Write the structure tokens for this entry.
Amino acid sequence: MKQIMKKMAALGLAATMAGCSVGGSAASTGSSATSTKDNSELLIGVIQLAPHPALDAATQGFVETLKADLGLTDDNFDIQNAAGEAATCSSIATTLANEEVDLILANATAALQAAVSATSTIPVLGTSVTEYGTALDIKDFDGTVGTNVSGTSDLAPLEQQAAMFDELLPEAKKIGILYCSGEPNSVYQAKVVQAELEKAGKTVTAYTFADSNDVAQVTATACAESDALYIPTDNTAASCTEAIDSVASQAGTPIIAGEEGIMTGCGIAALSISYYELGVTTAKMAEKILSGEAKVSEMPIEYYGDPVKKYVAARCEKFNITVPSDYTAAE
């Protein structure tokens, strides 16, 4: 038996605590994880890229569902947060692989990439990952990874997101897309949304930052040159909404966001999904793998099926925006 440290951040779970590793992992890629184990013996590793509401909610939904359905406790989880550092994700993934956990939840793209690099045998489920083909550099991705990896996507229909500019900001002709150049899924979303906006006759410019250090400066440039901004489901941006909001509010530039957490922090509206429910869906996939009911290699990526148009009333009032009736005010 060996002691492991459970690093938990920004969750309604317990803070750092110790537990016992019981070992055991999938014997081969795509196999069931631990069909001979009691649930009490399971050890599930969680790599969360950063502490912010969307990722926190996905982890919470995953953990709470497994606790409720399988009778698991805190001792069955090794939950670790990389504080926004991809290199830390890699270190965590290596540790979990060496501990021979029974399954890994990789929350966000950098966490998924780290887990895939660390193990080819332990089942890995991603969540809060937008497009798996892009994240894992799979050409002609057909929806199933086919290795020890599957999971859930946080992709809301991008064409509907682009349409929100005409619905809310019909006078906006110059749109800036603000995102982190180091996040492959942000690059993917930006390209798709740019194409959709250009079809609608908008002039679109991409404004990229390398990390949190230059977010404010890049945002200032984007605001000065744009009528409105779009921010995709970008983890770095989600961690810097206060800085973005400070600049955009002063400039008087409205922002439409790819997810509700970013919208709440700095935007006027978003096509919102429930990251908690995304975590629940991922947990249901984990249950099938852990029971031997399904092989991870045969499980297609699952998507959130019912996105909701949401808006921030105070910011919309500030910009004198008439909000259509099919939008719901964020709480």
